Amino acid sequence: MDFVKSLIENRLLLVGNFVLTSGKISPYYLDLRRLSNYYDIFSEVVNRAIDKIKGLEFDMIIGIATDGIPFASFIACRMGKPLGYIRMKKKSHGAGKVLEADVNGKKILLVDNVATTGASLLKAIKTIEAEGGKVVASLVIIDRLEGAEKRLAEKGVKLFSVYKITEILEYLLNSDLISDADKNNIREYLAKNVG
Hints:
The protein is α/β, with parallel strands linked by helices. The protein has a single domain (2-179), classed as Rossmann fold. Helix content is 39%, strand content 25%. The protein contains seven helices and nine strands, in the order αββαβαββββαβαβαα. The strands form two sheets. Strands 3, 4, 5, 6, 7, 8 and 9 form a seven-stranded mixed sheet that branches. Strands 1-2 form a two-stranded antiparallel sheet. Strand 7 (114-115), helix 4 (119-130) and strand 8 (134-143) form a beta-alpha-beta unit. The two termini are 23 Å apart. The model has no long low-confidence stretch (mean pLDDT 92).
C-alpha cells in the first residue's frame, strides 16, 4: 500500500514506545502533522475522504486544532464548504475563544487526523453543541479502533475514517519494513487494545 510506504518513508508512522494523548503506551505512533507537506499522498487522502462522506448533509466543517486543520481546510476547499476550527484550550488573550466559527443552527462535520478513544472529538462536540451547532458526523484520516467509533455513536455522531489502523498495520506486519521484535510488540498491542 503506497500510503503506508509513504508514512514510513516520511517518518509519519513511527515504531517504538510512545505515550499517547490518552496516556496509553503504544508501540507505534501516527505523526500526521506533516502529512500535508507531501501533496501527492495528502491529495489522495483528501479524495478518499470526500468519497467516504458522499451524500452526508452538513453546512460547515470544523477542524480540531492543530492537527485536524490542514485536513479540514483541504476538504472545505474541495467541497466549497465554510470552515472553522476549535482549540482544545481556551485562548488567554484577545476574545478568549475556543471555537472560531459561528455554528449556531448549523449541521457540522467535525474533522481531525486520528481517532483513538474519541476523547478529543467528544470534547469538541460538547463545545460545538454549547454554541448551538449540531455535529452530524466526524471524519478522521486514521481510526486506531480503540473505542472512538462506539463512544461517538452513543452521542449520535457517526465516525468516518479514511483508513482503519488494521489496514495499515496488516501491511506493515507482512512487510520487511520493521523488525520481528517490533512486529511482535505491535501484535500484542493490537490483541489487547483494538476491538
